[in-house]
Structures are given as structure tokens and as C-alpha cells.
């Protein structure tokens, strides 16, 4: 087992991510990836493998958070299963292919991509930007194409796809509550496929690292997932008494700062 200080650090990190997820209804990839990258590097894992391990472990953690989120939204009838199912083939294809490509891409490029993507996400959250709705109805081919793009991008930044999915569903005239609920279902597809993909692509690369299965750090996954699940309920309670617009801006700034920190750390 890892040393007690790392276990405690995983607990704190999981509690932070879970609380923020419950508070704002957002995944924690923007927080997890840069911090886990630093943690794994300090543990002696090579810099080249640290970011892939952080991405894979973050996606594994999202399986738990996405499942809980789907249950909450589905119980309120806020998941448009037809659109989620239509996007699923593209999401699975895009997510799996991206994980296989990522292992052969220089980690510095992934760090740059992550920082730029999170800067876009932070701007979208800070200014609450949404595309204007389209008058054209969603088609199966369009859903598959959108799913492929969302799945491909999401596994390279370890986000559940919520930012992109909510924007796309809003563009297709899905109301915001149903868009958020449907994005949770989409996030589960991304998390499962991305986790499996990073496990497979990293089996030979991390075979000498203890407590890993491919690019998944098992102790980090288990501890963070447990802590985040417990802390999420407290975040949900607090969300009802605090202004979400202000909190979204705070989250956006934190995510951007951590992303830039990872970029500086890399170079």
C-alpha cells in the first residue's frame, strides 16, 4: 500500500473534488489531472507517464461520480435517453481511439491541449456563454458525429463531457435541466470507455509500477472515489444556499490556475 501521507492526500483531494461536483454539478477532471500529475511525479513515476496516469485515474473516478449523477437526474426524469443513446456509438469510438493515440503522443502536447481546453472551459463558465439554438432537429448521424468529437476531446482532458455536451444539447433545443441530466449519461459512456482505453494502452508501459493497472493508479482511484462520494452530498446541501453564478466563476478561476500550473510544471 502507498504511504500514509499519500493516502491522506488522496482523501483530501477526493473530498475537494466531490464537494465541488456536488456544489456545481461538474466533474473534477480540471482539478484532478494537474494535481495527480504532480503527485505521481513526486512519487517517482516518470514525467512521460505521469500525465497519462493522471488522465486514466481521473476518468476511473468519474465512473463513480457519473453513476451517482445519472441516478439523481434520472429519478427526476431529466435524462433524454434517446439523444444519449444516439451519441453513444460516437462517444465510445472517439474516446477509445483517443486513448490509444494518446499513449504515442508526447506528454508535453497533451499538457498544452489540457491547458488550452480548460482555458476555453473556464471562459465559458465565467461568461456563461451558450450557443444560439438551432432550428434544425437532431439527426442520428449528427448525434454520432457530435458524440465522436465530444468523446475524443473529453478523454484527453479527463472531463465527463459535460461542458461540451450541455452546449451541444442546448444548441439542439434541449432545455438546460434535461441537457445537464443527459450530459451525465454521456459522461458515464466517456468515463467507462476512457478508463478501459487507458488501462489497455498502458498495460505494458506501467507494468513495473506498483499498484497500477495500465494507466490507472488503483489506490488513488479507490480512495478518491470513496472520499468524493461522501463529500458530494455536502456539496449538494450547500448548493441550495449559495449563488451558483459566483461559484461557477470561482471554479473556473481555480481550474484555469491549476491547468496553467501543470503547463509551467511541464516546461
From TrEMBL:
PANTHER family: MEMBRANE TRANSPORTER PROTEIN HI_0806-RELATED
InterPro entries, A to Z: TM_pro_TauE-like
UniProt-annotated location(s): Cell membrane; Membrane
Pfam families xref list: TauE (PF01925)
Membrane topology: Multi-pass membrane protein
Name under which the protein is recorded: Probable membrane transporter protein
Entry similarity comment: Belongs to the 4-toluene sulfonate uptake permease (TSUP) (TC 2.A.102) family.
Tree of life domain: Bacteria
Keywords, sorted A to Z: Cell membrane, Membrane, Transmembrane, Transmembrane helix
GO cellular-component term (any): plasma membrane
Chain ranges passing through the membrane: 6-39, 51-72, 78-97, 109-129, 149-171, 183-205, 211-234, 246-266
Amino acid at each position: 500500500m502507498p504511504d500514509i501521507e499519500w493516502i491522506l492526500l488522496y482523501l483530501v483531494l477526493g473530498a475537494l473534488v466531490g464537494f465541488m461536483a456536488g456544489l456545481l454539478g461538474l466533474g473534477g477532471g480540471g482539478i484532478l489531472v494537474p494535481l495527480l500529475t504532480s503527485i505521481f511525479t513526486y512519487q517517482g513515476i516518470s514525467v512521460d507517464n505521469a500525465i497519462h496516469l493522471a488522465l486514466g485515474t481521473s476518468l476511473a473516478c468519474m465512473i463513480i461520480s457519473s453513476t451517482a449523477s445519472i441516478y439523481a437526474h434520472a429519478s427526476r426524469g431529466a435524462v433524454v435517453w434517446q439523444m444519449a443513446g444516439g451519441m453513444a456509438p460516437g462517444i465510445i469510438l472517439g474516446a477509445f481511439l483517443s486513448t490509444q493515440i494518446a499513449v504515442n503522443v508526447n506528454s508535453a502536447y497533451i499538457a498544452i491541449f489540457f491547458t488550452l481546453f480548460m482555458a476555453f472551459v473556464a471562459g465559458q463558465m465565467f461568461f456563461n456563454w451558450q450557443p444560439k439554438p438551432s432550428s434544425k432537429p437532431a439527426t442520428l448521424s449528427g448525434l454520432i458525429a457530435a458524440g465522436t468529437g465530444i468523446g475524443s476531446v473529453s478523454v484527453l482532458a479527463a472531463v465527463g463531457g459535460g461542458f461540451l455536451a450541455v452546449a451541444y444539447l442546448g444548441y439542439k433545443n434541449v432545455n438546460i435541466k434535461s441537457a445537464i441530466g443527459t450530459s451525465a449519461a454521456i459522461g458515464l459512456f466517456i468515463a467507462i470507455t476512457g478508463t478501459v482505453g487507458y488501462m489497455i494502452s498502458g498495460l505494458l508501459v506501467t507494468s513495473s509500477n506498483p499498484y497500477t493497472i495500465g494507466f490507472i493508479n488503483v489506490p488513488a482511484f479507490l480512495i478518491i472515489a470513496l472520499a468524493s462520494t461522501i463529500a458530494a452530498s455536502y456539496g449538494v446541501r450547500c448548493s441550495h444556499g449559495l449563488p451558483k453564478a459566483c461559484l461557477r466563476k470561482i471554479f473556473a478561476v481555480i481550474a484555469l490556475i491549476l491547468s496553467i500550473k501543470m503547463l509551467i510544471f511541464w516546461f
